[in-house]
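Student: I would love a firmer grasp of how sequence relates to backbone shape in proteins. I am handing you a single protein, as its sequence and its fold in token form. I am told such tokens are a discrete way to write the fold. I hope you can help me see how the letters and the tokens relate. Take your time, and here it is.
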Amino acid sequence: MSTITSPPDSPSRVATAEARNAPVPDTAPAAERKRFLGFLGFTAGLSLVFIQPLVGLIRYALHTPLHSHALLIPFISVYLIWLQRHTSRPRAGSSPALAVLPLAVGLVALRAWLFPASPPATWPPNDYLALTTFTYLCLFWSGALLLLGGRWLRAHLFATLFLVFLVPLPTAWENALEVFFQYTSAEAAALLFAITGSTVFRTGLTFQLPGITLQVAQECSGIRSSLVLFITSLLAGHMFLRSSWRRVLLALVVIPLGIVRNGFRIYVIAWLCVHISPSMIDSIIHRQGGPLFFALSLIPFFLLLLGLHWSERGQRRAASVRTTAAPPEPGTSS
């Protein structure tokens, strides 16, 4: 009795082996694509629900210099995410537990919007828009955590949190910052008067000079330039620096830089009024000279940024050289 066996390379065996070794289709990209499409649909739906306050925010930013930067914030965030399109990043997932926190904060803000203690018509425009925009962002972040996941958002954490600059400054915050820069700028101007030996008599925020008396008003605080420079420092630190302490240093330097810039502006206007004509108080340098002094403040800012970037690059290069020159460990072969 004999047993009949198939040849080693029979078609049936070859087909079975090929089926066993065939690569399994990767369904992850398709699932991730569905998550992104779902997130885009969620964002579109949320924006439709908030269409009235969002349109109000756009109109307010167009007519309010202090918050005009809000129009650029979403585009900057999208651009920062687009820059990382070729870098390895975690796949989109879902983090419902993390989504609860911004959802809870957003619901509290939503309740304050829908059931206010006083009619919203009596609110200052920036207070109303600050509440509605913050509510929108909290719900947006919650949806992002639910549909894209905490790991994906962590890889794009700066771009995600950068959206907070969409929110206009509430009136109380705006007044507090204006008063802070008003008084500190007056101190900086007084210091410049003392250094240059100028003839001046100061009483609080008032400077009496030969032929004219100047008072540092709250509107002269330079808060807009300082806010824009602060946002610029965060963006530049994220793009050009790696170490956290250098990024923090660059952002903190903006505060004294803004004070010195505004104090220098006060000193220049006073000098022009004394040495040229008191009518210089109504000149374009006073009324519309903010961009000029802002541009001047960018010089030390970018010099500091370059210095921090070069020192960081030199430090990395030295660390790389030390790693390359390190002797092999005992027992390892070259």
Observations:
- The mean pLDDT is 86.
- The radius of gyration is 30 Å.
- The longest strand covers residues 206-209.
